[in-house]
Amino acid sequence: FVILALATWRVSSLLIVEDGPFDVFYKLRRRLGIIEQLGAVKPYGLLASILSCLWCCSMYVGAFWTLLLFLFPQSVYLAFPFALSAVSIFLAKVTEKLDT
């Protein structure tokens, strides 16, 4: 459960917040109808609405992980890198706060 929860947060965060290597996630959001101007996000369409809200997107990503795990139990190993990345980000933020 913890691995899939962390992986859900990480993938959702990648899709919604981060640009990714070569701006791949930024370009994906633009193609799906999300316009980012002066820090404000304006979604145009259903997919854009889902990809502009972390809470909304995490529901769909969590459902994806659940379905994938149900159909292919070994797929939990696909979640490991995302979960490890999430823990690494969390620890970096905690140590950053402790250093200040």
Going by helix content, strand content and strand pairing, the class is mainly alpha
Regions with pLDDT < 50 over 5+ consecutive residues?
A: none
Biggest β-sheet strands, sense, barrel: 2 strands, antiparallel
Give me the count of strands. 2
* Percent range for β-strand residues: 5-15%
Quick tags:
100 residues, globular, 70% helix, mainly alpha, single chain
Describe this structure in words.
This protein is mainly α and 100 residues long. Helices cover 70% and strands 8% of the residues. A hairpin with a 2-residue loop joins β1 and β2.
Provide a short characterization of the protein structure.
This protein has 100 residues and is mainly alpha-helical. The protein contains five helices and two strands. Helix 1 (2-16) crosses helix 5.
Protein topology:
Blueprint: H1 2-16, H2 24-31, E1 34-37, E2 40-43, H3 46-50, H4 54-71, H5 76-99
Antiparallel strand pairs: 1-2
Helix pairs in contact: 1-4, 1-5
